[in-house]
Amino acid sequence: MLLGPALAISAVLFTLGVAGVLLRRNAIVIFMCVELMLNAVNLTFVALAQRIGVGGQVFVFFVMAVAAAEAAVGLAIILAVYRHKQTVNLQNINILKG
Amino acid sequence: MTGTAVDLIWLAPALALLGFVLNSALALWRPTAKAAVTVIGVGVLLGAFAVGVAVVSAFAGLGAEAPVVLRYWSWMPVPPLQIDAAFQVDQLSAVMLLVVTGVGSLIHLFSVGYMKADAGYARYFAYLNLFIFFMLVLVLGANFPVMFVGWEGVGLCSYLLIGFWFNEKVNADAGKKAFIVNRIGDFGFLVAMFIIFWATGSLDFQDVFARAPTLLAAGGGAVTAITLFLFLGCTGKSAQIPLYTWLPDAMQGPTPVSALIHAATMVTAGVYLVARCNVLFALAPISGAVVAGVGALTALFAATIALKQWDIKRVLAYSTISQLGYMFVGVGTGAMAAGVFHLVTHAFFKALLFLGSGSVIYAMHHAYHATHSHEDAQDMRNMGGLRRHMPWTAALMWIATLAIAGVPPLSGFFSKDEILAAAFARGTAQPVWFLFWGLGLAAALLTAFYMTRLMLYTFHGPNRTGSDAEAHLHEAPWVMTGPLVVLGVLSAVGGLINIPELWGGGAWLHHWLEPVTKVGAAFLPEAHLSHAAEWTLVAIAVAVAVTGIVGAWRLLKPEALVPAKAAPAERGFARLLRNKWYIDEVYDFFIVQPLVWISREILWKQLDQRGLDGAGVNGAARGARALGWLASRLQTGQVGIYVTLFVVGVLAILWRVTAGGGS
Hints:
- The structure holds 2 protein chains of 2 kinds.
- Chain A is an all-alpha fold.
- Chain A has one domain: Orthogonal Bundle (Helix Hairpins), CATH 1.10.287.3510.
- Chain A has helices at residues 3-23, 27-52, 55-85.
- In chain A, helix 1 (3-23) packs antiparallel against helix 2 (27-52) and helix 2 runs antiparallel to helix 3 (55-85).
- The longest helix of chain A is centred in the C-terminal third of the chain and has 31 residues, at 55-85.
- The relative contact order of chain A is 0.14.
- Chain B is 72% helix and 3% strand.
- Chain B has a two-stranded antiparallel sheet.
- In chain B, 51% of the residues are buried.
């Protein structure tokens, strides 16, 4: 029941997220794209939970909790970087260059 | 085990080893305790000689033809190779045992006087005892590896004693030269052992000689290779062409060492080896001819060099090389008993000559020491007229000189004549032996000449030592002259052990050695001379000896000699002989220099510095750094690129896991 469209939307969302992560330069936008990927996966879990069992739905909660923690830490890092470099453009942040 | 005194044979080397251990302990902790060193050093040798006499008489009492083999422990049990630490007493090793311990005892006694004032007295006797130990292992070993241990051990002791006064570079260099040249010969010995094991499956003397006639084709490649490689070992140890050059330099050691190691015992090891392996040499006629030919050439060649040497010990050194050549003519011809006979008589008269020259050098050294002179105490041009000061030494050395020259009825006459007669007799079957006989005869002429020259210049004519120093010349103490007297008696009558049947004698040594030599003798062509022919040969030999002596007496004028520092340089052929045919220079130019050049320019500068250090060690480091540089290019610091790579990686893994990757 609507499994195919749900998975299709999920794939589209995930691809959008990946494309955003790869193509954008702004750390905040990349961060949002990562969230988009997580939610695409969440959608997959929920859709498939209808078929396979309730485990998928449980997993979604875990992902949400981890995503929240990740958002807190990630945003804090971005904030710290901004304070240090006056920018969140990743092209300007390359102090790991070998 | 025989239940007789033969079982005690282990005592002889054990005593010598004990002497070495005690004397080295004294050398380390109480080097001034010379009395104790004397008692130990000489005592163990006399003990070993007593053991030797007891063992040999017990062995003779057994009347056994077969050797007595005493196995002590299993040394290398690696089937099918089984090597025991074992000694063998037979007729040949009995002769060597008595010569080594007997002459060794006399030379130890002589050393007590000669080395009395030396600071390294204890060290000297430790080395000398160790030498006797290894020499006994060499002659008593019942298989090739045990013999090889002794063979290497005597080389070590020779090195230690040549360089005994090592704080002078020339002495240390002489020691190294002896060791390195001998190493070439030892390589031959080793290779010969490998082939023997490969061909016969054993290294025990008994087994090898019993199996050799059936397993090895007579005159075949294997037995020829074995014997030629063995003979390469002999040319090193016994100083034959081409490896003889170390022996004259070995005279840098103390004179009793020259007498013991470089004249009487160690250098005869090669002759012993050929006599021991007479079965193998009899199976390889080519090798027999090579042995006899090299021996004959060496005999003549070394004799020519001895004609023009001024250092009294160098004359004797070249004389030793020449006489060893005779022994090889004997054993190469198949006349093993004649070779061994000459080995024994040579041990007597050459030890006497060396010890006599030691007495002379001792007297000269003391005279120069007393007058604070720095002249050469070994140069015959500084001697002359010494018979007035050292009558005993002069008389005894004359006996040895007549013996080595081959004047009847002294010992050297019988042994040398037997070798030449054997070579001549073999010549009737194979004419090339006539050539060897001729070379030997020419060498005999030169031997008589240069020995008379040595005696004339040393003991006759006016004295050239210098008027101050002459007053200080005197005979050495009795502890040195005593052994000379014993050796003088032996040199005179030593021939008695093997008076040939021609002279109505019993050829005792010949018959005694027969159990050892008869197996090999069976493979050699029969060669018999009529009595008339033998008497002719004897007459020729005596005529040659007398010609040499009288010729030297008439031609050489000791009155015309001037002391070494005023002497003019030789010219022409004499200079060629004086400089030993420039053989050392030739070896240096063609072997040593290229070797040094290759080592320095190619092995060191190219292979080591460029190859190993440059390409190997530094190259590995440079390669690691280059790889690191390449990898660091990936680390751009751009998070975007990391992520891209991450995604590409994940996609690749997914693709592989799911569809496209196949298995």
